[in-house]
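Late entry, evening session. Most of the bench is empty. Finally got around to the prediction I had been postponing all week. Sequence below, unchanged from the version circulated by S.P.
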Amino acid sequence: MTSSDTETAERVAAYRAELRTVGRTQRLAGFALVLVGAVLVWAATRAGDLAGTVQLAGYGALAAGWALMLTAIFLRTRYHRRRLRELN
């Protein structure tokens, strides 16, 4: 492998690491909300009189979690496009 290949591989690795940090907070919060929502929907079968409320809260948490995950995807895509434009 030549030195330019090594530099290119190092740059790609550095850029991937940089890209992983974009939207990380939203992605992790969204994942946590999806997990909480799934547990709430599952727990609604055992909630007794509060089953409707717990199920609604679970579906709300699922919706909010997926919205945050989609927001993180949007932020990463926008960042990536902006970086590519800077290179050209």
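Two things to note before I forget:
The chain has a mean pLDDT of 91.
The CA atoms of residues 27 and 42 lie 23 Å apart.
Will write this up properly tomorrow.
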